[in-house]
Amino acid sequence: MFIEKQMRRIDRVFGFEGVFIGLCIMMLVCSFCDGAVGIKSASAKKYRSMARVYMTYGDFDKAKPLAESAVEMARKDKNGDKELSLCLLDLSYIYTKQNDPVGAGEICLEGLDVQKRVYSEDHPYVAYTLKTLSSIYRMQEENEEARGSISKAITIMGMYHEEDESAMGPFYAEMGKVLCDAEETDDAEYYYLRALELYCKSYGGEHLCTANLMSDIAGFYVDGERYFDAEPLVRLAMKIKETVYGEEHRQLAETFMTMAKICQAKGQTEMAEEYIGRAFRSVERSGDIEETAKLAAMATEARKIEKVAMAR
Question: In 136-263, which ranges are E strands?
């Protein structure tokens, strides 16, 4: 229970992605405590630690060769399964950030198998990794695999927590995304709102984690042309993110685009263009071509929205 509390503290600071890195950090603590890491594994640990520095700053190109070297070293240590699982899961995370869902899935599955050997089939660590795997399957547009993965994760977490405990929140949020992709909108909304209730209870209504989830739900409502329901959520999320990141940080790009769609639906075309401009400015310094192309597609979609009556 102590380790799970630490993971939730990490989640409060870093958000959804922080859960994954937090899992790795907590497992690393365990490896130090039981003294089970050998010499070769220690070398792997050094490379993994260097990779994680670059990961923290979002420099995944520099992190990747270090993480790959860590995996190679850890595989050579027959007694280093804990370290190997950490290295594999870190590398999988890097692949997801480099938009390589196939590579991420293969590495994540290998890490999951090692994790099960080290702990058990029904350990909470396994549940968190299954949640990560679900998100990778969504990237691959493999919805049934994603559903199976997150369903298993929720079942495992249910062995340790009540349905209304805050630890269940991220798992409900992931299930909401899976159901949204499957166009099961009623069930998706149910899980999204359950997650939001638990996030507000655990983190508070003005926390970054809560803001990220609000953005997801607002996007879900906009896709369903429920602009009235989306607007208060996205406005609050935008306010929180601007406080944390600054007014035009790349983490706000999609939030700006969601707001642009709402403004377009209200007939406020000039305001919509202002938010589209803010979205592009938020990513232009990064030079991320894929992100820019994604925003361009979203901008085209936003401009096609016709004015609607903003009523329930």
Answer: none
Which residues neighbour 231 within 8 Å (Cβ) at sequence distance 6 or greater? 218, 262, 310
User: What pLDDT digit, counting tens, does each position of 140-196 carry?
Assistant: 999 999 999 999 999 999 999 999 999 999 999 999 999 999 999 999 999 999 999
CA pseudo-torsion sign 98, 101, 105, 106: negative
pTM score above 0.90: no
**Contact assessment for residue 156 and residue 122, using Cβ atoms and an 8 Å cutoff:** yes
Q: Which CATH number does 207-312 carry? A: 1.25.40.10
Q: How far apart are CA 114 and CA 150, in angstroms?
A: 19
Tens digits of residue pLDDT in 76-104: 988 789 999 999 999 999 999 888 999 99
The domains of the chain are located at 207-312
State how far the Cα of 209 lies from the Cα of 44, in Å rounded to an integer: 32
Closest CA to 280 of 293, 263, 264: 293
Q: In this structure, are residues 204 and 189 in contact, taking their beta carbons and an 8 Å threshold?
A: no
User: Could you give the CA distance from residue 111 to residue 134 in angstroms, rounded to a whole number?
Assistant: 14
- Cα–Cα nearest to 198, from 227, 164, 229, 232: 164
Q: Which residues, in sequence order, are CB contacts of 196 under 8 Å at separation 6+?
A: 210, 213, 214, 217
